[in-house]
Structure of G-protein coupled receptors family 1 profile domain-containing protein:
Amino acid sequence: MEPETNGTWCWAWGNASWEQGEAGEDCWVPMGQWEGPEVVLVPILFGLFFLLGLSGNMLVLLVLWRAKVPGPRSPTNIFILNLSVADCSFLLFCVPFQATVYSLPEWVFGAFLCKWVHYCVMVSMLVSVFTLVAMSVDRYVAIVHARRSLCIRSRRNAALGVATAWLLAVAVAVPTAQHQVLVSGQHQAPNRSFCWEHWGAGHTSAKHAYKIVILLLGYLLPLMLITYCYAKVLFHLHKKVKNVSKKSERSKKKTAQTILLVVAVFLVSWMPHHIIIMWAEFGNFPLTSTSFTFRIISHCLAYSNSCINPILYAFLSENFRRSCRQVCPGRCLLKPAREDKRVRIRMDNISVTRSTTNM
């Protein structure tokens, strides 16, 4: 099939430069020789993100599966487990196939994978984001409403939150699979096939609405909820926790820094991706070497989020580190803190011990 020509700019790259194409919307068409340093450098760079992210998340899955303490089914570990599964799925379905877009002149994986890959990428991205929101709410309840947290933060509620995240993501991502098509027979490249997002004539408003929904559900609303929850946690630690020792004060400051890091990582990781999507959808995204580089950077930042999540949400947890020392023979990698250096307000996925806060 051949999509309608709408006079818009087309993603077309050749000889490390963008050129104008006349094919359909949101497409990549090779114009000229398929060469340049990006053909080699981009897949190598993506491969590093792939290996780092997959190794970190697989280690998290291994530890949670084999550890006896604090138990793989605790509410916190359920969220960490789901986050690692979502990040692994995102890396597996996104990075290898996206690398081929930069290194191959056409889509070589067929019509089914054209739909399936893009659908899985959208689902896993949304599940990862929804899980980060659920974890921030979980931390908020554990610290600010500690007395009621025992009944709220149950394994049943955590599992229900995980199921809700997957069901919502699966439903929201359906239009992605519907409108991802395999196109061939373009006059610029008549013997090549391309995997394009194609909505067809008369569906521009629906496409705009869907892009806005993804922006709201996949970035803006999660960012607002994560920021709100952690802001309340910081306020509680600053105003409500009184009469603490100097060590506890230092730990409270470290907790605040970690919270700010969590919010900043989410903000920076996904902002360029959504800027490009909105710019291309509602504006006139310039097709230059600079914009091409910006697109690569946006991919790298999105992949880095799946690499950093295991560090932020698992390895900074004292319970997880204790479980890791059980599973991994190299205990010197995650040595327990000396008793005289432990502080009473501690990080446990950005949580505070009840004995310290008297909550």
The mean pLDDT is 77.
